[in-house]
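Protocol step 4 of 6: structure prediction from sequence.
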Amino acid sequence: MHTIAEINLLLDELDELPADDLEDQELGFKEWNNRSRKDAVNLVVEMAICMANGGGGTVVFGVKDNVVGRKKAIIGVPDEIDLNRLSMESSH
C-alpha cells in the first residue's frame, strides 16, 4: 500500500504523465462523479470492491485520468461531500 508521502510524490509526476500512467495494482486515480450522489456512491463502492478483490489498495478521488499537468489533472472533490455520510450511504 502506498503512503501519503508516496502518493504526493506521484501527484507531482502529473506534470509529466497522465494519472493512468501512475496507477498500479494498489493505487488508482478517479475523477469525482458529480452527476448525482447516487452515482458518486456507486463509484466509491465499485472502487472499494475492485481494490478488495485485488488484495487492497488506495483510490485517490478528484484526479482526471488522461490529463497531463498537475493543475489541470487535480480537480478535487466538492467541499460539500461529507466523507462520514458517504461511507454510511455506501454501506447500505
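Step 5 (inspection) to follow. The chain has a mean pLDDT of 87.
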